[in-house]
Design goal:
Order of helices and strands: HHHHHHH
Number of strands: 0
Number of helices: 7
């Protein structure tokens, strides 16, 4: 299951889900039906059936949390160093323009820390550490927002014209001239 911002479950949420599975295990031992357990614990019957199969094969230990699916490969100290590198800007790393792309950040990670990340792994790393992806607004440096607002208010309504037809129309699409 995927979670927003690529962060996975928090430790509290992992604990909550583990407790649900262990409650289900107690009820498996009592011989209750999966549909009753699912309804009471407010989970799908399919989840309960999967848990029951794991419980049959490995007992209650099989239902314990396995921890996070993957641990971050960059430590907090290394990520702080990466942030410092990103703050220097792309020009300091040999790129001509001032845009950070995922491929460029991946390259910096590889050069600096000798780790290979996938393009898909870079935004997960960044979002996990509080960054957000930004898309630059394509606007001219010389743009005057006040002049644009004035033009939209004063000139555009005159240029656009009225949207209502002047003469009475017809409700028929096939015979527009019919009365």
């Amino acid at each position: 299951m995927r979670y927003p911002q690529g962060g996975g479950l928090t430790a509290e949420r992992q604990q909550f889900r583990e407790e649900l599975r262990l409650k289900a295990a107690e009820r498996f031992a009592q011989g209750e039906a999966s549909s009753v357990i699912g309804k009471d614990l407010r989970v799908s019957v399919r989840s309960v059936q999967r848990w029951r199969q794991m419980w049959d094969e490995g007992g209650p230990r099989a239902l314990r949390s396995q921890g996070p699916a993957s641990l971050p490969r960059l430590s907090q100290k290394q990520f702080a160093q990466l942030e410092a590198e990103l703050a220097k800007g792309p020009a300091a790393h040999g790129w001509e323009d001032q845009r950070w792309t995922l491929a460029r950040i991946k390259t910096v990670i590889g050069r600096r820390f000798h780790l290979t990340y996938t393009i898909q792994g870079v935004p997960k790393l960044l979002v996990r550490n509080g960054w957000s992806c930004q898309v630059p607004a394509r606007r001219a440096m010389e743009r005057d927002d006040e002049a644009v607002a004035g033009w939209v208010k004063e000139v555009w309504p005159c240029a656009e014209g009225s949207r209502r037809p002047v003469e009475p129309g017809s409700s028929s699409r096939t015979k527009p001239a019919s009365p």
